[in-house]
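Example 668.
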Amino acid sequence: MKRSEAKDRIETLRKELEEHNNRYYVLNQPSISDFEYDILLNELDNLEKKFPEFASENSPTRHVGSDITNEFEQFEHTYPMLSLGNTYSEQELREFDSRIVRSITEPVEYVCELKFDGASISIIYEDGALLRAVTRGDGNKGDDVTLNVKTIKSIPWKITGKVKPSDFVIRGEILMPRAVFDRLNEERQKAGLAPFANPRNAASGTLKLLDPRIVATRSLDCMVYFLLSEDLPFNNHYENLLEAARWGFKVADSIRLCKSIDEVIQFISSWESARKSLPYDTDGVVVKVNSLRQQQELGFTAKSPRWAIAYKYKAEEAATRLLSVAFQVGRTGAVTPVANLEPVLLSGSTVKRATLHNADQIALLDLHLNDMVFVEKGGEIIPKIVGVDHSYRNESNKPVVFISNCPECGTPLIKNEGEANHFCPNYLHCPPQIKGRIEHFISRKAMDIDGLGEETIDLLFNNNLVKNFSDLYDLRIEQLVPLERLGQKSAANILKSIRDSVNTPYSRVLFALGIRHVGETVAKTIAGQFKSIDDLIKAGIEQLTGVYEIGPKIASSIVSYFSDPDNLDTIRRLKAAGIKFSSNEESIKPGNLLDGKTIVISGVFEKYSRDEYKELIERNGGKNSSSVSRSTTFILAGDNMGQSKKEKATELGVPMISEPDFLKLIGK
Ligand code: IVH
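Predicted structure in complex with 2-(butylsulfanyl)adenosine:
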């Protein structure tokens, strides 16, 4: 590969990997399997080694993905939380062993532990008592989730009896049992909420909830795997873990001390299928050098210890018959091919459908109808087709052809150069696109209209009552009551919620319009620069790109949105309904009561969410901050406020204001 090509590829890979890190650690919505992620990371690692001139401290090969959300107070880890080198092959495992044996002359013992698939946690004990629990974060600092972790029954609050050492850090994996995950998803689906993709996402999502009372209902568990202290009881990892088990922590029964790499490999193969009958998901085996002295001798790379490696089991595959291919249109108009399969059992559940991503993927697989295909459930995300068994290919099997017209509205599809997906351009009249925009419009962070879920929107749309979100404001009670499932009371609630939404601030209205590339933050920036929608409509590309953080892509999307007369008509109707399209209306209302004040929010609140309080603070001229310092004016203190914030506030004499007092202060 040429130098310039390598540079481009390195940049692309870095960007892609950062996006996947965000989806995995922050959004808990991975879109690729761990295996695919590791392939990309490996490619980047190789390129950086081959072209060291492009190495960068900030590369995903050098740091671990971050789970920090800014909803919690952050704490620095006394010992950084590193990740592990990965391998999928026995040969690489043997190479790992050879490297170790080469640098350590005496015999080496390994500890094998199943790699439980959850969210990692670091728990700090002082005087034998649980002081604080912190997520991995970016490896150096993480979110303080102590209150949530304290709801987990298998984590002792206090070690009883004599403990040596009494100050230590213990690390482990927070897990959700598969049975609890299934139940939770069933409940979520009934309530119209998106299900979690797998128990790992459910566990890490739960750990980041702001209300520990809900966390307590989710039956989380914790399996510990690492004890750290200046004064450890034993000079080897295995005995330290057994000691932690005696203190009351949960250590997996499966851990095993091995005398050679052959024993390690035997451990790995003995658990390959046995692990599936455990109540928790596991995705591999962690192999660690047992002796702490040898560990010290081997040391660390920037990202992981040289004395440990994770062997990952490959995602399970099954062979089945491709019956047909359906084409789904998403909210953005993107068309995704979906394979209908002869039902087949895979990783404990029956698979009937699999995603095919896009036309390129179909071409790459050279897929024919009735083919025998291999399906894989990578990281338990949506299953996908990874290959075709050509020995079963029948001459009469017809190739799968990508459709040329939208299956929902019949419009010819388009494919932009450089993009993988086909799109339906019928932005205004294609049903799934319209419904998607309405769902976005009413969502919590946009107009926050309660009582309208996906199903009710379907109902309103199918009954010709709402074809555009501006139609919501023309709805009358006598139109809603006769609809299936909607009684007088819920109809009245929906209408009240729609009416109340006219008070939504301008920046959120801008976000609610669903202009491509205009997310929450961009909407706020725009609202700050263009005080009314009329100013924004008049703005050209140059004026828009002059605004900090607005590039040509966002600018041209805004200009093209406002050049469409249908969109202008929607805005006219929303204006007529009383919706705010200028920021003046916002600033006159509350005045600048919190001007120059720096406020820290902590705890759980009754009346509004933390996000809403943040917004109220900003709208009143105040500044939000996540940590208590001398410059904090006061703390808005809810229930279960973080212990450490409380201590810091007392130490610095920062006042704490209760929720009702705060609302009085801002005249609410
Ligand atoms: S040891 C320096 N042991 O896997 C040692 N990690 O990719 C680092 N994990 O973030 C960790 N089971 O969340 C270790 N028995 C185990 C583990 C384990 C699961 C997770 C852990 C870590 C990730 C490393």
